[in-house]
Each structure stands twice: as C-alpha cells, then as structure tokens.
Amino acid sequence: MSDLNPSRTLIYRPFAETDLPAAHRLSEAVKWPHRLEDWRFVLQLGGGIVAEDETGVVGTALGWRLGESHAALGMVIVSPERAGGGIERELLARALDGFGTRTVFLHAMPGREPLYAAFGFEPIDTINQHQGAAFRPPLISLPPGERLRPLGTNDGPRLAALASRAAGYERGAVTDALLDVANGIALDRDGELLGFALFRRFGPGHVIGPVIAPDALRAQALISHWLALNEGMFVRVDLPSDSGLSDWLDGLGLPRVDTVVTMARGATPARDPALRAFAIVSQALG
C-alpha cells in the first residue's frame, strides 16, 4: 500500500524508551513476531530514529555500534499506511550518518535489496529462518574428551572472545547482554572452551542463538541439546545458508520458513577460520 496522504507533516527524532509501545504496535502491523520485551532488549544495546506524524510513530530504524569499526542496522519498519513515501530511505540515511566509516551489516527483507544497494550495501550471505514445535531431536556424539556443560559464572569473557573471533569484530557487549536474558551451554575440552549456544525467549516461543562452534558436528550437538530439553515448544533458529545445517533442521522437523539476505557496506571482517557462528543472535543484531 502506498502513502495515501503524503502531505502529512513528518518529523524525525531520536528513538526514546517511551516510543517502545508504539514501535511494538508498528511491528505487529507488519506481522513481525517481536514482543515488547524483545524491542526493549535491542534498544538497550543501541539507539535509533523514529519517523512521526500527527498520528504517532510511523517508522523506526535501530542501530548498534559493535566496537570501533563495525555496526549493525535493523528494526527498519514503516507503517503500511505510509509505505512508498520515502520514509524508509530517510530513516536509513539518518541512521547511517551516525556510524561514520564503520562497516555496517543488515539483513534485507525480500524486495528491499535495491534500496539498500543504493546506500552502498552489497550481499555477502543469506540467512535461513527455521522454526516449529514438532521436531525430533537426535543424540549427537562428541569427539572423545569433549563434553557439554552449563555455563559458569566466569565464562562471560571467554564467550565474548569466541563470539568476536567467529564474527571478525567485537561482539562482547551483545554477548554480555544476552547472558542476562538467556540460558547457555558450553562445549568444553579439559577446561578449554570450544564453543557455546544460548537459548532465550523471543516472540511466540524461544530462539537458539548464537551457536558458536569449530564445525558442523559440534554445532549440531549444541543445537540438539536445547531441542531435547524443549520438545513440543516453539523454537526458532536463524542460520547462514552455507552452514550445512538447513537440510538437517528440515529433517528434524524444524522447517525453513523464510530467507533473508545479509548485506554489508564496507570491508569484509577477518573471521577466525577455526571458528564460526552456525546460528545468529537475531536478524537485527546478527
């Protein structure tokens, strides 16, 4: 639907905490699953811009600085009644102005790639969204000497380091915030932390992510742990299409329901080749 009344007065201003209920209603209007608590979580890690007319908030864009050289952009929504009026473009321009020369990442919904390309973004990956409640978790055997264990109180810095190595840029602030709202499991070998997976409330159910591991087998073990503990619950996993796990999840009863494009503006990060993120935190935070 295009903007039926483009003459309405628009203002753009910083996103305030008091805007959360209006932003949540906006995401409901476009059929996004986020709870008000999910909005509050992502806002506490960054900031954003709202577009507002006399009816209230009609557009949002949030951004997150990830260290000194990278950033993420997400929660870009425009009211269906104001679509096509240039609001999304203006929100993007204003949000990006605050990032300077940082490399910026985002996940493009279907049909939005041309707009982001106009701002210098290029596709670098795709993310498959899997979800469901009728899954059948398998038992995955780990290599000798390795085990899964609950996260300890002193694991935080090591988790942040693993997440940052897998991404190629700073993920410490995001990881620390997740530990306040998520349960976690660690992959351990004689006290050495090899990987981890977090599990938290999101939308109508729960989400597994991030999942950081050296290889697909160990990632499967981490994911299977959470599935086995939560049979019959609605669970979501967002993972890179080249992770090698999409067909596996389909076979378990967690079908792929959507695919989005990861886009970046700036230099490609230097990831640690011995480690990777087999599932992301969210399509907003990466």
Automatic annotation (TrEMBL):
Entry GO MF terms: acyltransferase activity, transferring groups other than amino-acyl groups
Pfam families, sorted: Acetyltransf_18, Acetyltransf_7
Bilayer-spanning residue ranges: none
Domain N-acetyltransferase: 10-143
Keywords, ordered alphabetically: Transferase
Signal peptide feature range: none
Designated name of the protein: N-acetyltransferase GCN5
